[in-house]
Amino acid sequence: MLSQQTSSPRGEVRIDGEMTIYRASEVAQTLFAAVRTQDGDVRLDLSNVTEFDTAGLQVVLMARRIAAASGHRLDVVRPSEAVMDVLKLCNVPQHAEQSMDSERATA
Amino acid sequence: MTDTALPTFIAESRELLAEMEVALLECEQGNAGPEAVNAIFRAAHTIKGSSGLFGLDGIVAFTHVVESVLDRVRAAALPMDRALAAILLECRDHIERLVGVVADGKADDGDLIAAGERLLQKLNMHTGGSSASAANTDVVATAAYAAAPGERWHISVMFHTEVLRNGMDPLSFIRYLSTLGEITHLQLNTERLPSPEDFDAEACYLGFEIELASQEGRQRIEGAFEFVREDCTLQIRSKAQAAYEATAGREAETRDARSARDIKSADNRSLRVDGDKLDKLIDLIGELVTAGAATTITARKAGLSELNESTLRLARLVEEVRDQALKLRMVQIGPTFSRFQRVVRDVAREIGKEIRLEIGGAETELDKTLIESITDPLTHLVRNAIDHGIETADVRRARGKGAEGVVRLEAYHDSGSVVIEVADDGGGLKRERILAKAIERGLITDGSSLTDSQVFALIFEPGFSTAEQVTNLSGRGVGMDVVKRNVNALRGTVELDSKEGEGTTVRIRLPLTLAIIDGFLVGVGGSSFVIPLELVEECVELGDEHRSTDGEQRYINLRGAVLPFIRLREMFAIRSTAARRESIVVIRCAGQRFGIVVDELLGELQTVIKPLSRLFSRIRGIGGSTILGTGQLALILDVPSLLDLCLSSSQAPVAPRIALAD
User: Do A86 and B171 touch (CB under 8 A)?
Assistant: First the structure.
């Protein structure tokens, strides 16, 4: 199941469990809210994500954009195997490239 | 929609499960290509998706696990071996049971759920639990293709918004693609990602620009997206062409779109129609034929040549319409044959023989009702062949045959009828043993004068079985006679060829359709009856010496042989005095001859059978009705049941039948 928390290390958000279409709306809402409350760069801890599909990937990309909109970066830290697999397959960098996202943010 | 669509879901699921079974059996035998795995995946995927629509969570949950395993097989992360195919077969059976529960409208059953969990555990143990190994996929696939990069393709795919909600994960298609070659470059297309406010987490906004080095052709690559063809915009270009197509790109795009449409329309060319509607149509056409015939007669009487001409043209058209309508009911026998792969596998395993099923003439078409009714007799014959026909591997080796026995199912058309053969290369029938048994059972008194085929025909007698040991499957002495009765009820015949030591072939001959009959019209009093023409052997006049003996004598001497007979007048209590000249129609049915006494012989006719209403279903001796061109009703005789009546009422002893054989 899912549990996410903004844990003590500043700027760190963790999502546990499944990040798939079945939970996407719920995860998106919570994650976006968490990202919006951050006043600096965000480190997204995905070490306990068991399943990760296209919906999960979109949520991460979207969260990265939201962070970028307020001039911050969103990096994925400690991706689980399931997450790493998708990021590699889709050529999505673990660390947000400032240039790319700031460009998008202005769009 | 749920209530009305549910039967369609069940019917479709069963079809898909049947396809899945065939493909799994292919996999188990180790001669399956990627199409088989795709077919299995497609079946599981579609069933899961549709069950989701109906809120059948039990099926969704179970099938989801199966589908995930299949997805890994498709991505080459897991080999499809015998063991996996066997487990998946069990899973398939379980899905079938789950669908069955839905079909019966029952609530979920605890035992079934527990059984499902045990199966999933088994599946998990075999496949190594989680999907961890999926990560290695790319490495393996890349290594395999690195040596021979082949052609370079540029694939541009944009997934439609609904694809995720339709239960597809675009990533699985990309993963599958990576098994077809090496993905040299991949760029995620995020152009369609909306602003955060408009973001719908369940919608898909992603596209992929992929460069693939692969030896596969365009079709295989396109095939990777088969399941999402309608949920994505796909462009595949060969790199070599890319430069050229950069200018002619638009044209290529429309061409691709057109080819995609072509494929789709081919899929939609067949249509599912309720069988009852079809029956109703054929029934109406039958009436049309009748009304047409009446009109023709009236027109002829009126003597107007123009009217005559147009009614003839009409009659021809009506006949064509009838033939076309009857063709609608024709279906291929292939799927029915394929179902026996499973029967053969299971039974052979149970009794420890190695047996292969061969299928021939799968495209032969016959009436759907016939196919449904022939399945049981076929099952019996196939089981018989496996159980009694094929020897054990040791015996086969000793006889110089291959250890693996072969059962062959074959269908073909032969002069207006369909022949279905069940053949085995087993031990064949032993003439002496059949004779001994027949004498012991009192079926015959002495077999020395019988030909081989007459001897073999004895095994179709009720209560006959030569099996030395009674197994779980057959050999209980009920069987061949039931097969024969079922086939006869379909107006078909059974015959048997056998060579000791070489094998046995059972040949079932069936009419092409049950809806039309070539009949012989006879009259008794004011009533008309139709006898199936293929059963009529000859017609003879009933001599005066037999006419006075109503109710007493029940057989005549026909050229030295005893011919039992029945009188339709007595049988149906027709209140009229016998005509001056009566005739006997000699019928050969199920290897026996008997006569039917009638007043008038009215000739041949082809007619559409109308089933009797339920009210009359218990009447013996009548199989249906038809309306003659004159508007008069004629009853179609059910000859096998008349034969039973004839033999039991006349108390014909067994001896006459032997006399007939001479």
Answer: yes
